[in-house]
Design a protein that fits this description.
The chain is of the alpha+beta class. It has one domain: Copper binding periplasmic protein CusF (OB fold (Dihydrolipoamide Acetyltransferase, E2P), Beta Barrel). 23% of the residues lie in helices and 42% in strands. It has two helices and five strands, in the order αβββββα. A five-stranded mixed beta barrel has the order 1-2-3-5-4. A hairpin with a 2-residue loop joins β2 and β3. Pfam families: DUF1344.
C-alpha cells in the first residue's frame, strides 16, 4: 500500500507546471532575430507576443520566466520607464 501511495505522489508531482522564477536588471544586449535578451549575464528567450522593438540596451526590466528545454522562457516582462527616462 505504501509503494502505491509513493508512486501516486511522484506521478502527481510530474504533472505540475514548472514554477516561474523572477529576475530584474539592465538589458545588456538584444538579439532580435533569435528573440533573446541578456540581463545580468543570463540569456532569456522572449515569446512571439512581446514586441522586442520596445526594448533597447540599458533598459531596466523585471521579468518572470520558466526554464524549458534548457532555455529561460520569459512569461512576463515589465519595463521600468522611470529609470530609462531619468537616464536620458
Amino acid at each position: 500500500m505504501r509503494k502505491l501511495f509513493v508512486a501516486t505522489f511522484i506521478l502527481a508531482g510530474l504533472g505540475l507546471p514548472a514554477l516561474a522564477a523572477e529576475d530584474f536588471g539592465t538589458v545588456e544586449s538584444i538579439n532580435a532575430e533569435a528573440r533573446t535578451i541578456v540581463v545580468n549575464g543570463e540569456t532569456y528567450t522572449l515569446n512571439g507576443e512581446f514586441d522586442i522593438g520596445t526594448l533597447e540596451r540599458g533598459t531596466e526590466v523585471a521579468l518572470t520566466y520558466e526554464e524549458a528545454d534548457g532555455k529561460k522562457m520569459v512569461q512576463d516582462i515589465i519595463i521600468d520607464e522611470e529609470v530609462t527616462t531619468e537616464e536620458q
